[in-house]
Amino acid sequence: MLxxxxxxxxxxxxxxxxxxxxxxxxxxxxxxxxxSPFVPSKKKELELILSKCNLKKGMTFMDLGCGEGRAVxxxxxxxxxxxxxxxxxxxxxxxxKLLSRLDKLHTIRFERKNILTYDLSSADxxxxxxxxxxxxxxxPHFERxxxxxxxxxxxxxxxxxxxxxxxxxxxxxxxxxxxYRFKRKKY
Length: 187
Description:
The protein is of the alpha/beta class. Helix content is 41%, strand content 19%. The chain is built from 5 helices and 7 strands; from the N terminus they run H-H-E-H-E-H-E-E-H-E-E-E. The chain has helices spanning 4-33, 43-51, 70-79, 90-102, 132-145; strands at 60-64, 82-87, 108-112, 125-128, 151-155, 166-170, 177-181. It has a 7-stranded mixed beta sheet with strand order 3-2-1-4-5-7-6, with helices on one face.
């Protein structure tokens, strides 16, 4: 039989793990309900995608629906750009901030904001890995907010309204990646 204090300690540990697990699952459900389930991009895919973005020091790389910040952290670390990660999931943002601190990335910030209203005007490159329904909602915001020649990289799904902006496509499974160069309409 376990001593009483050890029994209490195990009970507290089990309760803590249950709360942690429930919080994590709850945050994933919350992200999914907001239109952006957490599906991290693979490291090798990100390396290939970022290599095609022509990132240079002084540029701003923005990841909308950044999750734990994998794409934006890699862009900042490898290409010395300014990084902005935006997500609605507070738990994933805590992880993103912790990982960027551990990597000593000082030119990166993470914000808990709605990507449908977030100010995109500073972005030179925007990376998205979102469901088509959310991408469709983003298009009007892109067209109002993006500066001319902003590169929008959509991993996984096309932006159907922007077929004339496609500049490059990576065909890989399970998700292709589309590169769009936004051009403001001239009136």
